[in-house]
Amino acid sequence: MPEGVGNGEAGAARYDLTALGWLQFEGVCAELLGLFGVRPEAWVGEADSARSVAVPKAVAEALTGRSVAGPAVACVVWFPPWAATMWDARGRIAEAVGGAGTGDARTVIVLTNAVGNADLCAVAAGHLRAGADVVALGRAELGDLIDSRRDLWVTTPAVLGVRTLADLIPDDAGAAAFDLDAARSLAPTFVATSAYRRCCDVVARNGFAVLSGPPEMGKTATARMLGLVRLCQGWEVHECSDPDALWAAFRPGRRQMFIADDAFGSTEYRADAAERWARDLDRILQRTDEGHVLVWTSRPAPLHAALRRIHRENGLQRFPKPGDVMVDATDLTDAEKALMLFRHAVAADLGVGARSVIRRQAVAIVADPHLTPERIRRLVRGRLADFGGGFPGSATVADGIAYEIARPTEAMAVSLAALDPDHRDILVAMLDAPPAPVSERDLGLAARRHQQELAQPVSALVDRLQDHFLRRVPPAAVTWVHPSWRDLVIDQLERDPARRRAFLARCGIEGALLALSIAGGPAGERTLPFLIDDGDWDELLAHADALVAELDTAERVRLARQVSEAILDRSHHDDRRATAELDALAARLLETILPAPIDQTTLVLLSEWYALSELVREPPSPPDVAGVWIETVPTDELDLASREGVATLEAWTVLIGLLVRNDPAAVRRFGFPAGQDEVVGRLFARNAPVLAADITKDEALRLRRLARSLAWLFPDRQTALRAFSTYVFPYPLPRGEDETEDRPLIREPPRPTIVARVLADLDEPSPRRFRRGGRKPF
After folding, report:
1. pLDDT at 336 > cutoff 80
2. Residues facing 379 on adjacent strands
3. Which of 63, 144, 401, 717 has the most beta carbons within 10 angstroms of its beta carbon?
4. Which pLDDT tens digit goes with each residue over 587-603?
5. Element housing 258 (H / E)
6. How many CA atoms lie within 13 A of 494 on its CB side?
């Protein structure tokens, strides 16, 4: 930043506010003025452009510590880290102060991450009404205000990550069972999410909170940051694994916070761990007050079980409802993810190349369904910290980043391996159930297909897995907590030959589609999982007939289509065994997958049959389609004013297209097109007047499309059929279905997303950023 406005300052500022980024700095300013009674919703604008709020004269004097004239306005002036010239300083002040709606204000208070010196005040005054006074609260002044109002640490804990903590943490803090080193290393990258703020509110109201949610979503980080804030405020903080540890540290006359991280089991996921807390929970909660608070991180299901036991045995009435103490840490906003990226990048002191990658890929990174706070940390501190221009093994930087984000963490693998067989069976059943969210009924059917006798009801097993591996979707569905859990279960099953073959011998359509899938896994590298050796293929082939017999038409279409995709996939073309086995499986399906007789409801399946038959080495004879031809061929009695008549004609049109491409001999046997030419002509000529008067717009559009298709099949009647299509629907077809398409409108370029705006603070200074002459001294 420019000397005298940015980095250089008289007096030692304890807070490096620039490291917060503009969005968190905006939050600090709002929370600080909130302590003086200024409502957050009263602010106008945003800190990366122009942000201001009208403040009462008394508040302005309390903020500045001096007498001021009213009316007063507080204005945020943010200097990005890349601000490098005095000209840029002028531009930022002009943009922020001049555009902030200062109006008739006689006093403007500038809140800035730069140094609040006389030069800055003079530049700001040049953009205000004559006679207006400017008071600048820069890094040093804001730091003093933050330290004087230490409640601000609770609502904006990120400030502790940009401050020296040595003078705040007591010398004996390390004696408590609190991982102080972990909390200190967490502070420079911590972002106060909505879950953190809700947890603060719950603790303030009840003295007890339960942070729930899936792994990697920051439950431990949230609890530890709460602990660090309390520690800096003079509290004792203790991490305790069970009630015995809590009682050993409990002191009535001291302010104490207790953190039970993974209160019901950590990576080993012991579902019965709630019993240790259930025995003492009523007594513990009676001792929570303003000076003694308890925070659990865990899943909600064991909490419900513990509360049921407490109410059943003790009838405890003062305990709050579970909804009052539970905080869900599942979801993050785009702004929160972007801030995490920014804070980690700043803390890691990334090079120019790595920062450029983050800025360019930020929108895709934030949108990645696998993204969690832990994976942001791993990406930035790992591959990007050592970034050398690319990701080995990936075609592009974007592919490399996507792979790094999707790759499961070691803690997840340990947690999965520690599950007991009954719970693992439920997760395996999720692989053979309809795509998540899946109803508990369908999950139960899949589980019983693989395990005839379940040790417990499916709902009870899901309860134990809830919010760690699975989560419930109201009203009665279940899905994965995180996509990586599914990848891990697949990998585990893939490595176990006996369980793999048992799965193939009993699977339904979803399991079969997974076994035949291609381009799976975090980077699309997984092909034909579970089909690794001859025994696997033998099991699937032996099971094929029974599997097909249970499928409806839509499911048979999916199976045939997946086998075709697997045959066409090039990733296994060098594997002669896989190629031969797929050919054998396709031949078996061609024998069994078509129903007898074929009718107009199964034409889509017939299309997939033809497509698959083209891919086998010895294609079978074409199926007999005489019955469906007779069922659909148009006659003089066909009524185009009815839905059934139109559907029949559409089916016949589809059938002709299939036969022309795949079985021309059948077309000739049926006398097409000469045998149907006159019937089609009479059909449309007779129906045209009635249709134009009676059918709806949607029905007319449907008939127009049908007439245009038939015009292609009957060239001699093309002119008449096209005229008919325009007669019943005299409007342009929707875009893409007619010769004329709407031209795209010219629009103003969209405003950058919140993600791009937050990550813009990682930008590098460049002479092109500034006007000519911008490097002149102030």
Report:
1. yes
2. none
3. 63
4. 999 999 999 889 888 99
5. strand 256-260
6. 18
The Cα 620–Cα 587 span in angstroms is: 8
C-alpha–C-alpha distance, residues 378 and 217, integer Å: 13
**Which burial class, exposed, middle or buried, applies to 189 when counting CB atoms under 10 A from its CB (0-12, 13-18, 19+)?**
buried
Q: Measure the CA–CA gap between 461 and 329, rounded to whole angstroms.
A: 22
Pair of tokens at residue 457: 């009801």
Q: What does the block give as tokens for 470?
A: 């699975």
Q: Let me know: does 538 contact 582? Beta carbons within 8 Å.
A: no
Strand 236-239 with 256-260, pairing: parallel
Report pLDDT digits (tens) over 164-184.
888 888 776 655 678 888 888
107-112 and 133-137 strand pairing: parallel
Phi and psi at residue 536, in whole multiples of 5°? -65, -50
Token digits for 60? 């302005």
* Strand pairing class (256-260; 438-439): unpaired
Question: How many CA atoms does the CB half-sphere of 329 hold within 13 Å?
Answer: 30
Q: What is the pTM of this model?
A: 0.69
Asked if 328 and 195 count as a contact pair (C-beta separation under 8 A), the reply is yes
Residue with tokens 């001021």: 68
Instruction: Check: CB of residue 622 under 8 Å from CB of residue 573.
Output: no
The model's confidence at residue 224, banded by pLDDT at 50, 70 and 90, is very high
d(CA 762, CA 355): 6
Task: Identify the three-state secondary structure at position 478.
Answer: strand
